[in-house]
Design brief:
single chain; 11 helices; alpha/beta; 41% helix
Amino acid sequence: MARVLIVANETIGGRGLLEAVRARAQEDTSFVICVPRGTPSHGNVIYDDAVYDAAQVRVDLARAFLREEGISAIGEVGDPDPYTATMDAVAEYAPREIIVSTHPMASSGWMRRDLVERIEQAAGVPVEHVVVDLEQEGLPFGVTLVVANRTASDEHLLEHLQSKARDESHLFVVIVPQEGGGGGAAQAARGRLGQMLDQLKGAGLLAAGMIADPDPYTATMNALQSFRVDDIVISTLPATRSGWLRANLIDRVRRATSCPVEHVISERPAHVGGAR
């Protein structure tokens, strides 16, 4: 079976890339998705778990969407340098062909580094360059960014997300900040994330998620760098118990993005967890 390597990051899910994959899926072809790890633009500390998760979510979402099309694929997170990530994948999987997906020239760091030409010179197999303009094309499904921590499994939040998914194909990208950023913070955040994803998938919703920077504002801004979203839902405890609200998180996110921002207040009992 011939193998095609797909190298993409923020443009995964774009129309042009999906069309290129569909065309090759008519043949006896298998697909490998490689997503290089990105570098966050916000925050003073880079949390490796959060960076890896952001790329892994894109791999998982791409594979899930292709499954909906009846196309199977494997995927991996690659080196932060897209050229190194591609050549590592070429050595591992020996593809017959490579598809590289980028933003248009004006907004593509990969193209400014002549990525496609460098891969063509080094890989020894055909390379197709697919340009995806998400600002003009959008995505074939709605995307909501969900920011939650202690309230991640709250029934009010689940009901709100279910209502958003009733009328269209919808994807939920969940981020759970690592509370405190030290010790077992990543493990605790991953536990909350896992519970929430199980809850969403049990309700029939398409969802993926990642742990993120301890600061919820930084976590949200970095997620917006990684994913094109239509709107944002932030879940907190009531004002009297929410550190996020005391830090004016909702207004700060609204001022920083043109995306609609919705605030869902949890009514969890006061004895459950800390204030977020």
